[in-house]
């Protein structure tokens, strides 16, 4: 990896170098390096681009990193990654894509991640999307995540897109069996003329299952954001969706959560709020000696933390 | 009017007999009676079924009643009513439709009400929908309300559908100029195999304008309800939407509010909750001596009050 790629790696995976444990690093559409462990196998797919990540039942406190880095302008990459997580696992998976585009062509990465999470397994899934470059070429990412949760399984998903992605459509789908739980926390910031669309669909099929979708976003400049979330309560279940957005400059934000209760014991709630940074908050920080821009920055960082 | 029609009139307009002030009573697709006043004129449309209600600028503390009654089975009625409300008015308008259907045919009433509300005028608009009969013929009502609010104008709309409507699609649209305000309170109860769809679209175009949409509904038996609301904040404005639903038996309820902020000074919030009657509430009332059915009834009445 060159310096640019190492810097991207740090942005998307928080890593200075190759990680501990299992990993698969994809650079410019090719396998760069891979490590497997006694409990975690990674196998290249034969019918299409992508990998299978197979984690043995009962695997605890292990992690898998699968970052994707694009440093050539104009590269179009598409991968299918499937995760088979055995019963009673407790693992952390870190995915993400970093694009460095110093050219005039569009760089694009589409990834479809499908999770099959076994009974009583716990998964923490962290996903970061980051772009950089001189702004002449477009950076596009369309991540799709599908999560199948067996009885008692749980997943905590943290998905972040902070900078440099010109256009993104982010789809996340989940279906839950008895006592399964899904927690999704999304953070998005858009600037310039960027466009971001988020679409969550969660089917609460099992008895006692629950989902919590929390999205926080900041839209600056002329950027546009659309947020959709659909929670279907088909059994005794709990669903909660929350979308808070800060709007700045000439940006626009739209939030469309949808709740459907098909069972008398479904308990569904959503909340959303869109507004600008409160004037009092700014004034307070400015009386402490910050400039207006610094005060805004501090409030936004706190909001997205 | 016969006894059935008088009873319908009471259900939809709270009237025992013809009202005070201006009124237009439509029975079985025909004009039954009409009264105008010095300030309020009612004119039959010549190009299509319906009436124009014209209220002089500055008219205060006057009311107009325009109930529609259908007591013949199988009647299909469609009216266009336009309301021209002058500047600085302060008036109450009571509309509504009652269907008594003792037959096997479908009775249907569609009404499109358009309001042109002048500067600084205040309108209170009350609308009730009610059906009854032996259950062999279907009762269908599709009310559509469009509200244009000039600078500083305000409308408070109360719309209620408590019983006996088998199928309804209720559309309400509003556009607001500077400092205008729109408050909508909706109450719906469905039972049996009824279907109710509600669709609000409000454009907050003026500086300092505001909208508040509050929907409370109860879905019993196998009934289905869908709630849509769209609030577009296109200026410095405030928008709030709230949808609370109680689900019972095998009913299903879906809530899809949508907020769009196209201006940095738009302040938009929505909330929704769908769930069944809390067990503790029922138990509390039952320890006070009520049966379960009585306790449910009391909770529902309180919720829809």
Shape of chain A: globular
Q: Supply Rg of chain A.
A: 20 Å
* Biggest protein-protein contact in the assembly: A-B, 31 and 31 residues
Which spans of chain A of ≥5 residues are poorly predicted at pLDDT below 50?
none
Show the helix and strand layout.
The structure is a homodimer of 305-residue chains.
Chain A: H1 3-13, E1 22-27, E2 30-35, E3 40-44, E4 51-55, E5 60-70, E6 76-85, E7 90-101, E8 107-117, E9 122-133, E10 139-149, E11 154-163, E12 167-176, E13 181-190, E14 195-204, E15 209-219, E16 224-233, E17 237-247, E18 252-261, E19 266-275, H2 279-287, H3 292-304
Helix pairs in contact in A: 2-3
Give the key terms:
homodimer; 305 residues; mainly beta; ten-stranded mixed β-sheet; nine-stranded mixed β-sheet; 3 helices; 19 strands
């Amino acid at each position: 990896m060159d310096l640019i790629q190492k810097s991207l790696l740090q942005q998307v995976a928080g890593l200075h170098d190759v990680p501990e444990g299992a990993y698969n690093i994809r650079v410019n559409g090719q396998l760069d390096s891979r490590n497997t462990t006694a409990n975690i196998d990674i196998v290249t797919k034969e019918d299409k681009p992508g990998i299978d990540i197979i984690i043995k039942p009962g695997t605890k406190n292990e992690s898998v990193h699968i970052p994707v880095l694009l440093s050539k302008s104009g590269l179009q990459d598409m991968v299918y990654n499937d995760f088979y997580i055995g019963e009673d696992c407790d693992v952390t998976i870190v995915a993400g894509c970093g694009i460095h585009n110093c050219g005039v062509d569009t760089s694009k990465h589409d990834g479809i991640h499908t999770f099959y999470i076994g009974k009583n397994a716990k998964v923490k899934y962290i996903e970061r999307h980051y772009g950089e470059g001189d702004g002449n070429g477009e950076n596009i990412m369309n991540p799709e995540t599908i999560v199948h949760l067996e009885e008692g399984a749980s997943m905590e998903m943290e998905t972040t897109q902070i900078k440099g992605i010109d256009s993104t459509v982010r789809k996340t789908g989940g279906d839950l069996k008895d006592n399964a739980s899904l927690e999704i926390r999304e953070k998005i910031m858009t600037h310039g003329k960027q466009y971001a669309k988020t679409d969550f669909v969660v089917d609460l099929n099992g008895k006692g299952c629950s989902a919590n979708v929390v999205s926080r976003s900041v839209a600056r400049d002329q950027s546009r954001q659309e947020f959709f979330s659909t929670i279907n309560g088909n059994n005794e279940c709990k669903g909660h969706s929350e979308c808070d957005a800060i709007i700045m400059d000439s940006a626009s934000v739209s939030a469309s959560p949808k709740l459907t209760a098909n069972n008398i014991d479904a308990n569904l709630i959503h909340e959303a709020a869109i507004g600008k940074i409160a004037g009092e908050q700014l004034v307070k920080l400015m009386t402490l000696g910050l400039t207006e821009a610094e005060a805004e920055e501090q409030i936004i960082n706190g909001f997205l933390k």
